[in-house]
């Protein structure tokens, strides 16, 4: 099975179960390399359907303070792109079998070499790529490499996206589309934006691809509310904050279970 | 897509054909930003194209340039400096005499007026390194009655304290940035984060010929007033030499003052166009911002919306840069510079902190002009270049700003010597 097919299978399955997918984000190498492996295993047990694994970058301009700090910590501990891929293969060897979507900015990937990165990512067990500073206009080289390797290219849409851009992103995305819930950066927020359902519907009119919503979702209740209108619920900063707390693995396991229950409500 | 495999067009080059419609200068440029901002970039481009084709807008901008900025800025013949160096005759384009003390006002006023007249937004965010772009933006915002927030790294706030106070006097909110190296790059990240969050009401007034399309083109065009004036002034037989220069020298951080003076001269192929990067503590030290001079650190990459040369480690993480001048202390360089360099039309050299200080002192003592430390890099390069040229040859140097803001740094530097 290709990465695209493995991602599609997850959304087929959750649709059959009449629920949304729980899609946690974790920055590789945070708070330590060992803890990363434990945290992802704990989230897998807690009911994660698909993982977004963050490959740290020095200049994460779409991220808020929580993820900035976490990826900075990962970098200062010497986490490299190659090391992130190695952690993916170790997780596969441990039996974590949910799809992995690597999330990183374009420069680390470009510096690695686009074709080399795609080859090594597939070999390690990565199924899709999310590159927040790479719109479809600039994604030609990466898309071509991913298409040949069966790796999903997941583009993002935002509340500001026009109808024309929604069509363009839908045409270039595989696996699913990442809907950014707010105009803003990543980070837990106390309330979901009031026009979120309208935004999801606006995109839905143009595509049958699964739609996963991220940015600002922090609690089981919010996850349930998003699950009612979308195919996937992405949670980052709230889990990263938990991972950084004392007894981080258990804190992540608890919040992961709450969020997994949320998408099943 | 490496520039070494890219074959630049041969024969006569039509410089006006770049960038292409998606903002690419050959392999450089483009739009590498989060989706949230893509519609804003389209709107900006549309508004900008409308404005430049609108006689009323262009007349208002020209009026403000004359009556508020003090344009045209003169060219001065640097008699004593020319004699001291014993080679080419040196002329100085005096952007230090523009209101707020640097060329930055040309772009800040242009973009602020664009927002006010064509964009239906009410708030400006900007980044600043040396503080000159921040002061220029705060000034334009005050003049046009626009709410303004400027992000500035806390390291830069410390070394350019007078400019922080200036911005606050002008009614701008200055927000210190504590992330990363706490300098210009981090201020840009934070300004972009603000812009992403408030994009419906806010215009990002980027200060250099950098970032995603259409910024590199728009900033270049607003700064090209420098080169257009200089072209006329050099041909003037009264106050000028009555002919074009043999070389033009300008410092290059992001590269806006350089592209501004270079651009109108591109077609004049006999005029050498020379950019001077910040050599910091020397290339071998790794502590510099000479993107073109260090093949190990300065490689093709993407930073803050554009593909260009970027100082980075082997893993694609952006390297820390160093320069005595905050305005040149940046890891990337405008995409058009990278392209013109590939085409062989422009050349780039670097000047270390020490050479810039030498240029700084010389210009003070011989010409009675205190240059900004950024501009002192261009002067520093004259020390090498001018003596190699004949007395009948002419160099025009763009003095992008004045040095009042740098007195603290210079005092410290001189006390260490």
Counting copies of identical and different chains, the oligomeric state is heterodimer
Cα-atom radius of gyration of chain A:
17 Å
Outline type of chain A:
globular
Strand tally of chain A is 9
Text of the CATH class of chain A: Alpha Beta
Please give a handful of descriptors for the protein shown.
heterodimer; A: 265 residues; alpha/beta; TIM Barrel; 9-stranded parallel sheet; 12 helices; 9 strands; B: 417 residues; Rossmann fold; 2 domains; 6-stranded mixed sheet; 4-stranded parallel sheet; 15 helices; 14 strands; globular; disordered N terminus
List strands and helices in order, with pairings:
The complex is a heterodimer of chains A (265) and B (417).
Chain A: H1 3-16, E1 21-27, H2 33-46, E2 51-54, H3 65-76, H4 81-94, E3 100-103, H5 106-112, H6 114-124, E4 128-130, H7 140-149, E5 152-154, E6 156-157, H8 163-172, E7 177-180, H9 196-204, E8 211-214, H10 220-227, E9 232-235, H11 237-243, H12 248-263
Parallel strand pairs in A: 1-2, 1-9, 2-3, 3-4, 4-5, 6-7, 7-8, 8-9
Helix pairs in contact in A: 2-4, 2-12, 4-6, 6-7, 10-12, 11-12
Chain B: E1 24-25, E2 28-29, H1 38-52, H2 55-69, E3 75-77, H3 79-85, E4 89-94, H4 104-118, E5 123-128, H5 132-144, E6 147-153, H6 154-159, H7 161-169, E7 173-177, H8 184-197, E8 202-204, H9 215-223, H10 225-235, E9 247-251, H11 256-262, E10 272-280, E11 298-303, E12 306-311, H12 335-342, E13 346-352, H13 353-367, H14 373-385, E14 394-399, H15 407-416
Parallel strand pairs in B: 4-14, 5-6, 5-8, 6-7, 9-10, 9-14, 10-13
Antiparallel strand pairs in B: 1-2, 3-4, 11-12
Helix pairs in contact in B: 1-4, 2-4, 3-13, 4-5, 4-9, 5-7, 9-11, 10-11, 13-14
Structure description:
The complex is a heterodimer of chains A (265) and B (417). Chain A has 265 residues and is an alpha/beta fold. Chain A is 50% helix and 13% strand. Chain A has a single domain (3-263), classed as Aldolase class I (TIM Barrel, Alpha-Beta Barrel). In chain A, strands 5-4-3-2-1-9-8-7-6 form a nine-stranded parallel beta sheet. In chain A, strand 7 (177-180), helix 9 (196-204) and strand 8 form a beta-alpha-beta unit. The model of chain A has no long low-confidence stretch (mean pLDDT 97). Chain B is an alpha/beta fold and 417 residues long. Chain B has two domains: 24-41 and 104-219, Rossmann fold (3-Layer(aba) Sandwich), CATH 3.40.50.1100; 69-102 and 224-415, Rossmann fold. Chain B is built from 15 helices and 14 strands. In chain B, helix 2 (55-69) packs across helix 4 (104-118), helix 4 (104-118) packs parallel to helix 5 and helix 9 packs across helix 11. Chain B is globular and about 55 Å long. The A-B interface holds A 57-62, 64, 68, 72, 75, 80-81, 105-112, 132-135, 137-138, 141, 155-162, 165, 169, 180, 183-185 and B 1, 22, 30-40, 179-180, 185, 189, 192-193, 196-200, 299-305, 310, 312, 314-318.
């Amino acid at each position: 099975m290709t990465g695209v097919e493995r991602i599609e299978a997850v959304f087929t399955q959750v649709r059959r179960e009449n629920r949304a997918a729980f899609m946690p984000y974790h920055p590789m190498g945070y708070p330590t390399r060992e803890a990363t492996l434990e945290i992802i295993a704990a989230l897998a047990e807690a009911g994660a359907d698909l993982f977004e694994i963050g490959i740290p970058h020095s200049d994460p301009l779409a991220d808020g303070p929580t993820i900035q700090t976490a990826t900075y910590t990962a970098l200062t501990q010497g986490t490299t792109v190659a090391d992130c891929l190695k952690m993916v293969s170790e997780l596969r060897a441990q039996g974590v079998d949910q799809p992995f979507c690597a999330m990183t900015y374009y420069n680390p990937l470009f510096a690695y070499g686009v074709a080399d990165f795609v080859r090594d990512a597939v070999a390690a067990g990565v199924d899709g790529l999310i590159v927040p500073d790479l719109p479809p206009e600039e994604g030609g080289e990466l898309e071509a490499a991913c298409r040949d390797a069966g790796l999903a290219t997941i583009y993002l849409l935002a509340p500001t996206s026009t109808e024309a851009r929604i069509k363009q992103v839908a045409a270039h995305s595989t696996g699913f589309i990442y809907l950014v819930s707010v105009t803003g950066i990543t980070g837990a927020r106390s309330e979901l934006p009031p026009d979120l359902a309208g935004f999801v519907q606006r995109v839905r009119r143009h595509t049958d691809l699964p739609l996963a919503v991220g940015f600002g979702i922090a609690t089981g209740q919010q996850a349930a509310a998003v699950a009612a209108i979308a195919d996937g619920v992405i949670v980052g900063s709230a889990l990263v904050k938990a991972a950084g707390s004392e007894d981080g693995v258990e804190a992540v396991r608890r919040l992961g279970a709450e969020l997994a229950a949320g998408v099943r409500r | 897509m490496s520039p070494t495999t890219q074959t630049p067009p041969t024969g006569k080059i039509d410089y006006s054909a770049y960038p292409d419609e998606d903002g690419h200068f050959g392999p450089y440029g483009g739009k590498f930003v989060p989706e949230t901002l893509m519609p804003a970039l389209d709107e900006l481009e549309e508004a900008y194209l409308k404005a430049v084709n609108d006689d009323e807008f262009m007349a208002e901008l020209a009026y403000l340039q004359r009556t508020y900025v003090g344009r045209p800025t003169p060219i001065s013949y640097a008699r004593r400096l020319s004699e001291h160096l014993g080679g080419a005759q040196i002329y100085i384009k005096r952007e230090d005499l523009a209101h707020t003390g640097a060329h930055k006002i040309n772009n800040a006023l242009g973009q602020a007026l664009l927002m006010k007249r064509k964009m239906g937004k009410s708030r400006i965010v900007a980044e600043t390194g040396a503080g000159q772009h921040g002061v220029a933006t705060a000034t334009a915002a005050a003049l046009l009655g626009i709410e303004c927030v400027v992000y500035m790294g806390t390291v830069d706030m410390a070394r350019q304290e007078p400019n922080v106070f200036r911005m606050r006097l002008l009614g701008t909110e200055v927000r210190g940035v504590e992330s990363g190296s706490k300098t210009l790059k981090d201020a840009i990240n934070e300004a972009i984060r603000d812009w992403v969050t408030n994009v419906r009401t806010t215009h990002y007034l980027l200060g250099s010929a950098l970032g995603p399309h259409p910024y590199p083109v728009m900033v270049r065009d607003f700064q090209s007033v420098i080169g257009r004036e200089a072209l006329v002034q050099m041909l003037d037989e009264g106050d000028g030499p009555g002919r074009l220069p043999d070389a033009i020298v300008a410092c290059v951080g992001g590269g806006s003052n350089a592209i501004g003076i270079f651009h109108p001269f591109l077609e004049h192929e006999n005029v050498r166009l020379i950019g001077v990067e910040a050599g910091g503590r020397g290339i071998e030290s790794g502590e510099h911002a000479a993107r073109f001079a260090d093949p190990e650190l300065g490689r093709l990459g993407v930073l803050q919306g554009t593909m260009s040369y970027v100082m980075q480690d082997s893993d694609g993480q952006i390297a820390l840069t160093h320069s005595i001048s905050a305005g040149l202390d940046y890891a990337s360089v405008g995409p058009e510079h990278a392209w013109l360099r590939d085409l062989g039309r422009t050349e780039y050299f670097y000047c270390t902190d020490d050479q810039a200080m030498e240029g700084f002192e010389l210009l003070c003592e011989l010409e009675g002009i205190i240059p900004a430390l950024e501009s002192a890099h261009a002067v520093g390069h004259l020390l090498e270049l001018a003596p190699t040229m004949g007395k009948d040859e002419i160099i025009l140097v763009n003095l992008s700003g004045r040095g009042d803001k740098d007195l603290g740094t210079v005092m410290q530097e001189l006390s260490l010597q």
